[in-house]
Amino acid sequence: MMAEVSPLRFITLEGGEGTGKSTLQHALAERLRAEGFDVVTTREPGGTPLAEAVRELALHPPAGADWSPMSEALLMNAARSDHLEKLIRPALAEGKWVICDRFADSTRVYQSVKGGVSSNVLKSMESTVLGDTVPTLTLVLDAPLETTSGRRSARNGPDDAFEKRATDFHHAVRQGFISLSQEEPLRCKLIDASRDVASVYAAAWRIVSQTYALNEMAG
Ligand code: TMP
What we know:
Elements: E1 10-15, H1 21-34, E2 39-43, H2 49-59, H3 69-93, E3 97-101, H4 104-110, H5 119-130, E4 137-142, H6 145-153, H7 167-183, E5 188-192, H8 197-211
Parallel strand pairs: 1-3, 1-4, 2-3, 4-5
Helix pairs in contact: 1-8, 2-3, 3-5, 4-7
Bound molecules: thymidine-5'-phosphate.
């Protein structure tokens, strides 16, 4: 008899800036922990000491210097490779859930829009770095820029290299994520994130519980 292969409990959260990914990550992790699961929450770029150092370099380059989209794509993939090796794969192998705030789809979108790297090149880098470790569910949070720019400016601290980019860049990013969820409808679920936090969470939990056959009513 063939052993049943259970799907990786690997969820990624994607979307533009200020769409509420971190808030949702926290709520989903709490819910899964309440159901008795071990959950690792992490983020990209980042998640390990080396990848966090790359994050600093990518988001806050030295004054007056800018990364090209190709250099950015390589940096993101270098950080991801370390993150996968040292944190994500070991956690999944122990049967833990991993919920990652941004992952490979952010590279597909951010490093390709507005004259960036071609999708074919990005996909080939992606498959080399990810191998079999592909998220089983990606929740794509979508909201109009008018909503997200208010949330972004309410945050503390100066804008990073990405937040500083022009509105048309952020429009293209939003469109990129919408297209992505149309290209991969089985893995990527678009969620209307312009609603209140509780409604976004309820929609997300419904999808998580259906995807992994958890009891929707429990907990
Ligand atoms: P955030 O995690 O605070 O949203 O910021 C991370 C920034 O890095 C965000 O602007 C998107 C950008 N980014 C990329 O451009 N490519 C990537 O692969 C990842 C993970 C993030």
